[in-house]
Description:
mainly beta, Lipoxygenase-1, Immunoglobulin-like, Jelly Rolls, 5 domains, five-stranded antiparallel β-sheet, 49% strand, GBD_T9SS_assoc, Secre_tail
Amino acid sequence: xxxxxxxxxxxxxxxxxxxxxxxxxxxxxxxxxxxxxxxxxxxxxxxxxxxxxxxxxxxxxxxxxxxxxxxxxxxxxxxxxxxxxxxxxxxxxxxxxxxxxxxxxxxxxxxxxxxxxxxxxxxxxxxxxxxxxxxxxxxxxxxxxxxxxxxxxxxxxxxxxxxxxxxxxxxxxxxxxxxxxxxxxxxxxxxxxxxxxxxxxxxxxxxxxxxxxxxxxxxxxxxxxxxxxxxxxxxxxxxxxxxxxxxxxxxxxxxxxxxxxxxxxxxxxxxxxxxxxxxxxxxxxxxxxxxxxxxxxxxxxxxxxxxxxxxxxxxxxxxxxxxxxxxxxxxxxxxxxxxxxxxxxxxxxxxxxxxxxxxxxxxxxxxxxxxxxxxxxxxxxxxxxxxxxxxxxxxxxxxxxxxxxxxxxxxxxxxxxxxxxxxxxxxxxxxxxxxxxxxxxxxxxxxxxxxxxxxxxxxxxxxxxxxxxxxxxxxxxxxxxxxxxxxxxxxxxxxxxxxxxxxxxxxxxxxxxxxxxxxxxxxxxxxxxxxxxxxxxxxxxxxxxxxxxxxxxxxxxxxxxxxx
Length: 564
């Protein structure tokens, strides 16, 4: 069973009936099949040669808009002569038409082309028409595309019986008493009229025109998701009044699924017309694998890793309450193997002061791991490292630097060594370094092992445009001895940073060695000052980030500098 929406000029409960006498109201009904107004057309309505409606067009100051129609009532008396004059077809005259409706809502005149006149004799029936309301849909079947609905007849008017006819091709229904009558088997998604025929006086017939009962799209619910394949594009519209909200936020959503070959599957809404949101689930009502709000402007792109056996469910919705027309495209890429340290339990151990090359390409977020506090938005691609501090240390420094042209982030978080409760164990977090990398420093404890998380936003492959992407980076950790152990041996300063030509080092004791490494871990410069001060000529080095390793006595310190 699915929801059916009853529409008639945006009304849900439809009442009919009126009191007729020698004076009554007739109605001018103007229609535009395209829905954008009359495009310059106007019409005159004359009663007994006197203009009562002059150059009328779609104008809310004169009449009432009803969907793609516009109606204006005018007073007449029984026997009056009505003349209509269509004043030209306008730019798109073929889209427009009009009808004159009697007091009983029966069409007594019409036109659909330019410069046409119609003469009508008014008949204000001296009778009481039937009265009532159309309301509750009592049974619906969107699969069979039929529905039943109730009519509550409150008055038979002046007749002893009323026959309910329709333009849907179904048999008429005879009514001899007031009360609820159920009309059955009407088609969904089809416009039709219902007429309440006074069996004793046709002048008191009442017509309700333009009834339509709408079924939602077939994929309104997750259980009815439409299967999609690689390189397939589909179109939909969440602003359809029958589309419901089933997941995520207050915006209506439609559902699709993917159950094809294994790989990196990208669902893109970049060509849509409104501010979209997209969510991927492992089952209906199951775990949300990933979601995305803005990737290409305010449009959404989400990539997930398919295992080639499971079915994945895609919910297309809007940001907050936004709704509109969308274009959904599915693209597939060969599976990208995850890095060896994709999982927290497989963290790679770092050697102090030694730069390690890493990558987030192919990394996926383990949803069981809490997100880092500094980056709780969307999906992250993370990899893991550990480092153990030696005796006498009281500070841990960790530095990441983006090294690959395809990479955009190498964010950092440090945890105590427990993969099961990361949210509680987080010690530091930073994602403010942008496209260069991050630096984190915490107070450390000698002999303690720490977890290090490096991540970028999303999962490979990259969104088509506007999103951050995965790539390579370098990571290095070093430790600072406590003041008592160090005895100020490595209390050195260095400047400037960034450096253009020369880097100056000053220390309280002699600097034995200085080694400079590039982001690939290659030593590019070495010097042995054996003095408390030294000037390092960096003119021959290319622009970029470098690690400067300084040895003072038995202590080694590593700092990162930028060569301009």
